[in-house]
Amino acid sequence: MTEQELYNEINNSGSQFHSREQELNLAMPTLMRKVYTWMSLALVITGFTAWGVANSPALYTAILGNSAIMWGMIIAEFVLVMAISGAINRMSMTTATLMFILYSVLNGATFSSIFLVFNMSTIARVFFITAGTFGVTALYGYTTKKDLSTMGRILFMGLLGIIIATIVNMFLKSTGFDYILSYIGVAIFCGLTAWDSQQIKRALSTQYDVSESAQKVALLGALTLYLDFINLFLYLLRIFGRNDN
Questions:
Q1: What is the SS3 assignment for 31?
Q2: Nearest C-alpha neighbor of 36 from the set 221, 239, 232
Q3: Which tens digits make up the pLDDT trace of 212-225?
Q4: What DSSP line would sit under 113-147, residue for residue?
Q5: pLDDT at res. 158
Q6: Element (H, E) at 80
Q7: Based on the structure, what is the number of domains in the chain?
């Protein structure tokens, strides 16, 4: 290879790297917007579904008054989350999006009882508290230079622990213990929101375009943050809505 050819090769490599860097700079903000757009739409769908079911005696009785239907919906939600998380690369973007929407609807239907248990003012207040808390922790996870991987593993173990403790308390029926679990749940999902935000940023940083595969990564990120938001909201509602019970 001549000196001129070597020089051209270096220039071409530099141009390709610069081009890929520009593509990344364009793709990253677009994909992050998709993450929060899909998450927000899912929350809106869940909220309107919950409100609609709660305000329809026929629907409410048919869904929450029938244990078989209720358990069927809960199992369906679990299956949908597992399917989206584990098989999203094997399905089309349209199918994955429709499954996410269906999950949001089912979630809304199962959570419709909160409109009958808690005051509307309490629900609204807790929603805004949740939005603010979620926003701060998600921003921290996105902007921090600290690696949160270790914290993520600890939080995951804590999540398993609180699930087991919640099941045990279903038999103990201890109000005090439930109150303590609610605070622990808030702490865990604040941490998970920060960790998930950092993980999503890292996953999207490897995408150099807004192709279907890249959008699937964004959709999976939206589902993850949606679950963090919902769980954080429910734990905060248990804390701030105690006087409504």
A1: helix
A2: 221
A3: 888 999 999 999 99
A4: THHHHS-HHHHHHHHHHHHHHHHHHHHHHHH--S-
A5: 92
A6: helix 67-87
A7: 1
- Beta-carbon count within 10 A of 173 CB: 8
| Alpha-carbon gap, residue 114 to 50, rounded angstroms | 8
**b/e sequence 138-171, b meaning 16+ C-beta within 10 Å:** bebbeeeeeebeebbeebeebbeebeebeeebee
AA letter at 98: L
The amino acid that residue 84 corresponds to is I
Give the tens place of pLDDT for each residue, 111-135.
998 988 899 999 999 999 999 999 9
Nearest to residue 203, comparing CAs of 17, 24, 66? Answer: 24
What is the rounded (10 degree) CA torsion for 133, 134, 135, 139? 110
Task: Bin 173: left if φ > 0, else alpha if -120 < ψ < 50, else beta.
Answer: left
What is the average pLDDT across 199-204? 91
Kindly report the average pLDDT of the chain as a whole number. 86
Alpha-carbon distance 181 to 135, whole Å?
Answer: 22
| pTM reported for the whole predicted model | 0.86
State the residue range of the domain holding 179. Answer: 3-244
Overall average pLDDT of the 18-39 stretch: 74
Q: From residue 240, how far is each of 65, 123, 132, 190 by CA, in Å?
A: 26, 9, 15, 17
**Straight-line distance from the first to the last Cα atom of the chain, in angstroms, rounded to the nearest whole number:** 80
